[in-house]
Amino acid sequence: MEVNIEEIKYPIGRYVRPDAYTTDLLQEWIAVLKALPSWMDVCIENLDADQLRVPYREGGWNIQQVVHHLADSHLNAYIRIKLALTEDNPTVKPYDENAWAVLPDVDSVPVNVSVTMLHALHRRMVALLESLSPAQWERTVFHPEHKRTIAVWEFAALYAWHSRQHTAHIQQLRLRIGW
Asked: I need a labelling partner for 32 at 20 to 30 A (CA). Which of 15, 24, 71, 99 fits?
């Protein structure tokens, strides 16, 4: 059986930035963000240390790295949203997610710590997003790596996709291996 690397890398498809948002889309994105921590509970359930070190694809991160990455990435997103809401189009600091994925804490800290962090973080993030006015959804940050402004509503869209994407990485690996 031939492996389609594109499908393994992007099991739900590459991210496509929406041109706009609706109230229904915002509710959908928030629902995904609310669900992510529970999805991670299920994704890592009954996996041992060796299984957590299996990469979801050749040359890709292992499950442990993916889980810790979700916590790191979503923490950065939460901070960027708060900056957008409290400052006038601030410039955010990019970071090297691949370098973060190989820092010693990723290997030494159990994944359940990051899942617990996601539970707490997403409770805060969802509460914040659910409280926003229409004008606040339009608040922005400037991302120098992408050379453009990003609105708060775009963060909701992107991180809902990001949540689904990495959940699918782990789920599909478990299916392929038969865990």
From this structure: 99
